[in-house]
Amino acid sequence: MKLTLNSPLDMHLHLRDGKMLDDIAKYSAKSFAGALIMPNLIPPVTTIKAIIEYKERILKACNGEIFTPYMSLFFKESYTPEFLRDAKPFISAVKLYPSGVTTNSEGGVSSIDIKKLAHIFEAMSELGIPLCVHGETDGFVMDREKEFSAVYESIASAFPKLTIIMEHITTKESAELLKKYDNLYATITLHHLLITLDDVAGGLLNPHLFCKPIAKTYKDREALVQIAINADKKVMFGSDSAPHLASKKECCGCAAGIFTAPIALSALAELFEKHNKLTNLQAFASDNARNIYNITPPKKEVVLRKKEQTIPKEFEGVVPMFAEKRLTWSIEQIY
Ligand code: NCD
Ligand code: ZN
């Protein structure tokens, strides 16, 4: 059994910087044609100069692979319409983090006051810049995404021309909210399609499955799987592959983030095949993103085959999801 994907895209990716960037960029650049690059570096990416220089470092780390880094700016309340107009040619999105809700989000927005931010959202609507959002409150860990839905509803209804991407959705309620507003879209990660809170903390604690937002219930996972495998045009693949060194995960105070880049496409093929929906993977892992972001990625054909592989124990000091476990699909060739 074989599947060829045309220009797969990963619309939520953490590539980091420095040595980590140099070490791990290749795992995405080899098998994906492009990815939306998250701006939560230290310090976050908030200027045109920083965007241009970070993109250059990414391309260098990609070592000549055909791969487009679609850049995102870290949302600041101080952005002006003029700044956004100047930034527009260099970016594909602006990413809003509520302050403190996840890794390196301290410089995010402390309270989302729609009236105060209206001039930014209006400028983004007019310029056609999508707003990507980490949609969690600082409430009880299992309820954070649900509690945030009121913010999505108010932005989506007040700015109907603004494309809003609910990043890494994890709940049935989020899957349903998508249907309510034409301008709401979402990314779904590999891990939220495969694991629940049971895998993280139901038995021995597994730090390599700890991420924000935390994996939820079986009912939630099933709702995400259904919209992903049925080629719902509102959702697209965004791995949220977020590498941290093993020493930062296997410790007290484990960092949030799961590293999935090297296994993403094989694991997705396995999941879609299990549900007899293999042909819908092209929509989920590329076509929907092209339409939502209005982008044309470079040409790259990734041939996947039903052939077992064992996931390595680590990649450059980073432990991947499902390390040492088996996958039934593998990448056979990349053109
Ligand atoms: C991400 C990271 O490590 O940068 N962590 C995570 O748990 N997903 C940040 C994020 O996307 O929330
Ligand atoms: Zn992320």
Characterization of the model:
With 335 residues, this protein is α/β, with parallel strands linked by helices. The protein has one domain (9-263): TIM Barrel, CATH 3.20.20. The chain is 37% helix and 16% strand. The chain contains twelve helices and 13 strands. The protein has helices at 18-31, 48-61, 81-87, 114-127, 144-158, 172-180, 190-194, 197-202, 218-229, 246-249, 264-274, 281-293, and strands spanning 2-6, 9-13, 34-37, 68-74, 93-96, 131-133, 164-166, 184-188, 235-237, 301-305, 309-310, 326-327, 330-334. The chain has an eight-stranded parallel beta sheet with strand order 2-3-4-5-6-7-8-9. Helix 1 crosses helix 2. The longest helix is centred in the middle third of the chain and has 15 residues, at 144-158. The two termini are 19 Å apart. The mean pLDDT is 98. Zinc ion is lined by residues 12, 14, 38, 240, 242. N-carbamoyl-L-aspartate is lined by residues 14, 40, 102-104, 134, 211-212, 240, 242, 256-257.
At the first level of CATH, what is the class? Alpha Beta
The helix count comes to 12
Helix content: 25-40%
Structural class by helix and strand composition: alpha/beta
Work out the oligomeric state of the chains in this entry: single chain
Main sheet strand line-up: 2-3-4-5-6-7-8-9
**Unreliable stretches:** none
The appropriate CATH architecture is: Alpha-Beta Barrel
Per the principal axes of the C-alpha atoms, what is the gross shape? globular
Question: Bound small molecules, which ones?
Answer: N-carbamoyl-L-aspartate, zinc ion
* Rg calculated over all Cα atoms: 18 Å
Number of E-type strands: 13
CATH topology: TIM Barrel
The fraction of residues in strands falls at 15-25%
Terminal CA distance: 19 Å
Average pLDDT confidence is: 98
Overall number of structural domains: 1
Order of helices and strands: EEHEHEHEHEHEHEHHHEHHHEEEE
